[in-house]
Specification:
Blueprint: E1 8-11, H1 21-35, E2 40-45, H2 57-67, E3 77-78, H3 83-95, E4 99-102, E5 129-132, E6 138-143, E7 147-152, E8 159-162, H4 170-180, E9 185-189, H5 196-206, E10 212-216, E11 218-220, H6 241-251, H7 265-275, E12 286-288
Parallel strand pairs: 1-2, 2-3, 9-10, 11-12
Antiparallel strand pairs: 4-5, 5-8, 6-7
Bound molecules: zinc ion (ZN).
Length: 292
């Protein structure tokens, strides 16, 4: 008999500042999605883009999750501890001529990469990035909330796995890590939906099992801007964790009953797990943060 596969989900913030309202929204969604299925919820710090990392962020992220009762399973994983594996995977891809070095500068590139370096011999002494060869094939997948998504990768061109500044590209590292950690459901913000076809392509090329994807709405402010570190979204206010979770459950369209307004963090999360129904977010790509 087949045994139902254990759900393994994750939350993977970058240590580029404290968690803001939008990031805890996504964290709670992925937590509830995992816990409502008796699944594991792993925490991974996506810390490869070292110039963007901010000291003290990891401590701040961990303590925020702790305050909100969002306890993760096992040890915290760090992408920076997987560098050897990324290099091994790159070597394998190079060996099979699935990737090639690219010396183009950002200035000479428009949105779509035209494959300039794909058919040239590149002197590896020059600073170079590594790109993967894409093809004409159309990639389609069904997002749990956003429905069918389809894209032909050649529309964007061959994409980068390792940047010229030696930093592993997000697309690549995330796929390798999700595979290493056995992640079988990815819950994350709608802003990353675009990158999913490229990641699915990588999963195929590397022979990894594909996780399922669920992209939850992003939170925008009243001016219509996405809350992010770039828009200087401030650290989420933790003075009243109970009311914060109530507010998040409401924004997750779970309709928590008013009686829960007096509940503790643990009671709120327990209610959230029992009543979790992501279908309420079907087709929703963004939500406006209610003013305090
Ligand atoms: Zn190039």
């Amino acid at each position: 008999m087949f045994q139902k596969q254990t759900y393994i989900g994750r939350f993977a913030p970058s240590p580029t500042g404290p968690l803001h309202f939008g990031s805890v929204y996504t964290a709670l969604a992925s937590f509830l999605q995992a816990r409502s299925q008796q699944g594991q919820w792993l925490l991974r710090i996506d810390d490869l883009d070292t110039p963007r990392n901010i000291k003290g962020s990891v401590e701040s992220i961990l303590s925020t999750l702790d305050t909100l009762g969002l306890y993760w399973d096992g040890k915290v994983a760090y992408q920076s501890q997987t560098l050897d594996v990324y290099h091994q995977v790159l070597e394998q891809l190079a060996l099979h001529q699935l990737i090639y070095p690219c010396i183009c500068s950002r200035k000479t590139l428009t949105q779509r990469y035209n494959g300039r370096c794909r058919y040239q011999t590149i002197d590896l002494v020059l600073p170079h990035a590594w790109r993967i060869k894409t093809d004409q094939q159309r990639l389609s997948f069904k997002d749990v909330l956003q429905g069918s998504v389809s894209e032909c990768l050649s529309e964007q061109g061959d994409f980068i796995l390792k940047r010229k500044d030696q930093i592993m590209a997000y697309q690549f590292a995330v796929v390798v890590d999700d595979h290493l950690q056995g992640i079988n459901q990815v819950v994350r913000g709608y802003d990353l939906l675009d990158s999913t076809p490229r990641q699915i392509f990588l999963h195929h090329v590397l022979g990894y099992t594909l996780p399922s994807y669920m992209h939850v709405p992003i939170i925008i402010d009243e001016q219509g801007y996405k809350l992010s570190k770039q828009t200087l979204a401030t650290a989420v206010d933790l003075t009243q964790p109970e009311s914060l979770i109530f507010k998040l459950l409401t924004l997750l369209k779970q309709n928590p009953p008013n009686a829960l307004k007096e509940a503790s963090v643990d009671e709120l999360l327990a209610w959230g797990m029992t009543h979790w129904n992501p279908a309420h977010l079907q087709g929703c790509s963004q939500l406006t943060i209610p003013s305090a």
